[in-house]
Design goal:
The complex is a heterodimer. Chain A is an alpha/beta fold. In chain A, the strands form three sheets. Chain A has a six-stranded mixed beta sheet, sandwiched between helices. In chain A, strand 11 and strand 12 form a beta hairpin. Chain A has helices at about 40-45, 70-75, 90-100, 105-115, 130-140, 160-175, 185-190, 210-215, 230-240, 260-270, 280-290, and strands spanning about 1-10, 15-25, 30-35, 55-60, 75-80, 150, 180-185, 195-200, 205-210, 220-225, 245, 250-255, 275-280. Mean pLDDT of chain A is about 90; it is low at about 305-310. The relative contact order of chain A is 0.14. In chain A, helix 4 crosses helix 5 (about 130-140). By secondary structure, chain B is mostly helical. In chain B, about 65% of the residues lie in helices and about 5% in strands. Chain B is built from ten helices and two strands, in the order H-H-H-H-H-E-E-H-H-H-H-H. In chain B, helix 3 packs parallel to helix 6 (about 200-225). Chain B is elongated, with a radius of gyration of 25 Å. The chains are: A alpha/beta, B mainly alpha.
Amino acid sequence: MIEVRGLTKRYGEKVAVNDLTFGVEPGKVTGFLGPNGAGKTTTMRLILGLDYPDAGTVSVDGQRYSGLANPMREVGALLDAKAVHGGRSAYNHLLCLAQTNNLPKKRVDEVLDLVGLSEVTRKRSKGFSLGMSQRLGIAATMLGDPGVLMFDEPVNGLDPEGILWIRNLMKALAAEGRTVFVSSHLMSEMENTAEHLIVIGKGKLIADCTMNEFIAQSSGAAVRVRTPSPDQLALAVAAKGGAATAGSDGALLVRGLTTDAIGDIAFEQGIRVHELSVLRASLEEAFMELTADSVEYHAGVPDAPASIGSGV
Amino acid sequence: MATSTAPALRLSTLPPATGRAGLGGAIRSEFTKLRSVRSTYWTIAALFIVSVGVAAIVGFGIANNLHNNPWNKAGTDATQASLIPFFEIGQLIIAVLGAMVITSEYSTGMIRTSLTAMPRRGTVYAAKLIVFGTVTLIVSVITSFVSFFVGQAALSGSGVSASLFHSVTIPRGVNMSPGPQGPNGPPNYHFLGTIVISPGTVLTAIIGCALFVTAVALIAFGLGAIIRHTAGAITSAIGLMFVLPIVVQVLPDTWRWDVMRFFPDAAGRVLSVTIDQHNPHLWSEWPQFGITLVYAAVLLGVGSYLFRKRDA
């Protein structure tokens, strides 16, 4: 359980986090979304007490982070997988962390085994690939068996296998009743993992809702349905508040309803469904639409070279 | 590396916490950090080899000189000759380690991981200081003694070698006149008076130099905490210990020394002396060492304050 209230952080003139208030609940994966530079990492640093806020408070399980008796038993955080001393072996890196919270030595071997690094425990982490570094960072978060886990852009730069591994891990952790808070700047990374979303832009809260609400609210979000009886389904969907239009390839595009709702409608009406999927592009568009005003750096359209070689 | 994509959380249950994470765990952690990177061994090995090696070379050089020019025995401080390489060059080498113990955490990003595991920063700083200070003191005392013994072994038979086990008597001064072969031949000489060097005096010099080198290492540690940048911290330490005393050489002789007694390097010159050729402009050994300690205490204090108050 993480609670953020009125959190504000300035770096010089720039306001990185602006009066942010939200809570992160246990038992589910909460996605923390925002464009690059929206203040996601800063917020996480403020939660961990790495940076000090200019205003507002943060509590983890009702306490200030630095006041937790044994922080690693409460919170496991991975902000930057490369934030390790590369000259130290994986084992010694985890050992020095475990010792600060008086955690047993054998725990180090256990977490190394958990993340699949048991064959490189004595290797210096300097030579680790990004995927291995991520696994080492995740091993560190699991040392204290914490109830709250925080990951900052955990799948950045990973191969598909690594991405899948981390997604499954996050879901498994949430299923055990833990609080899982994970940031990303890509909507597509969240759609399969997060149940709840906190969206920020330019340091301000834009949305705090469930994934389903987010999809339903987004005007551009559409669900693609392939069915042998499109007319029948279009009527049934319309009766439940959805709007169906015919797609170019004969599939239906349904707006205003979630995949769950459409599937239930089809089942109730006895309509065969061959495909039921959220249009990724539309979901990404909805996110971009939502954060459009708060993107830190817009790519400018270069001016056309009007008068090159005019010979004046 | 394992390639399982569905992580099973097969972790054993942690034993319940036995108390708050505190200084004890932090000290064990910092010791693990120090002993698990190669730079620690390289630096300590360099300190030992340079101090002892140069002490041996200096010893052989003096022994050779005294063999050819025996009148130079008058007033030769054999103890200081063996300790100079240690406290002049050795202080520089250990200063590198002192700075790096803290700056390497910032250059690698490890500080964020360290402070997440143990957010009580005062405790982290104290643990670092205690571990590094203790290791440095032990290494310095050993190096100082070995430098002395090796240096005196090289000087043995020269008639001036000092001892920790019995008093040694050397000539205080010498009266020289041209010999039978005129100014180009060996001179006639006879010694005037004696100096008795007691084992206690020698012991004070050996221990004093070890304490001095430790204090310089702490100065570098404090600078490291303030500057948070390896090159910057080492450069500042060199500036304070080596460059400043040279710059001051341009001041008039009449009051230059009265300025230099307030510099942290002055204690080295006084502590290593076993023959009472005491510079009247400097204080005696312990008050002069007190000046070095004041520098160390102020820099460590400022470093501690900034370590706790700044964003990590």
